[in-house]
Amino acid sequence: MGNNVERLHYYKLRLVKKVPENKDYYDDIVADIKKHKPSKKVAKGDETFLVAISDWQLGKSDGKGTKMIVKRIMKMIDDVNDQIASLKEQGHKIDELYIVGLGDIVEGCEGHYDMQTFSVDLDMRSQVRLAWQLLIKCLESWAPQFNKVTISCVPGNHGEVRRNGKAFTTFGDNWDVHVFEVLEAVLSQNKKAYGHVEFEIPDDELVMVTKIRRNKFVFAHGHQFRAGGPNTFAKQQKWLALQSLAKLPADGCDVILSGHFHHLSIVQEYNTLFLQAPSMDGGSRWAENTHALVSDPGTLTCVVSDKRVSKIEVI
């Protein structure tokens, strides 16, 4: 600057996201579980209350992000309690709870759409940690009200371990399944309060086939429904028809329940109940702008007896 000298200064820094130590936080959760006490014995009934945990997609930034997703989930926990109380007041004899995780509990960080890595508001570790923390909140609130609790899950596409946009390990190597394994490990620390909780966790399968009361249920995320038509029911129908032709385990089911498509669908056809659960995420700006697809968030619940599935609600 000519004959003048001006001294300039620069500052070097590194930004580090502050997160709680995972081990310490896990130990705190386990300590709380160990102190949790069971409630009084529930009167024996003949119905099961089912809650479909579908497409939470924790870490997704659309629709005010993960903070709003968590707010909806916490409200849902209370709404489930209100729904159970209301059903019992109506005369339903509910003594069992069935919780099914339909996949996409986490958002993932890479490989599902071009802008994903830039847009997520939680890294993978944080997504998984938050998922099992919220599931524990669900069980702390709901489990004491039932004589038996069964928890099942299936892997979704957002839970896949991916490289360059493709799953490259196994069907079972899936974060949506892992979070339920963590839940099982934590609850096992208190057999007195959670000894009535059972888990049905798939090994390396995309589909869970089980019996609830006398009804044969098929649970699937839905990303494997590759053909059939423009709507969810048509895709479910085509997939199930081919499963039946091949005499695979889904053959002859009474109810098929899936997620993935982020909206509610209920069809009773071909002596089968086809259910599609909505999501809890904040929507998708891509889906809105490209296909004008908009759907309200919510959680599907229903009552299962020996003879039928009734009281299908979204809360």
Characteristics:
6-stranded mixed sheet, 315 residues, 21% strand, alpha/beta, globular, single chain
Question: Could you characterize what this model shows?
Answer:
With 315 residues, this protein is α/β, with parallel strands linked by helices. It is built from eight helices and 13 strands. The strands form three sheets. Strands 6-3-2-1-12-13 form a six-stranded mixed beta sheet, with helices on one face. Strands 7-8-9-11-10 form a five-stranded mixed beta sheet, covered by helices on one side. A two-stranded antiparallel sheet has the order 4-5. Strand 4 and strand 5 form a beta hairpin. Helix 2 (65-89) packs parallel to helix 4 (124-142) and helix 4 packs across helix 5 (175-187). The longest helix has 25 residues, at 65-89.
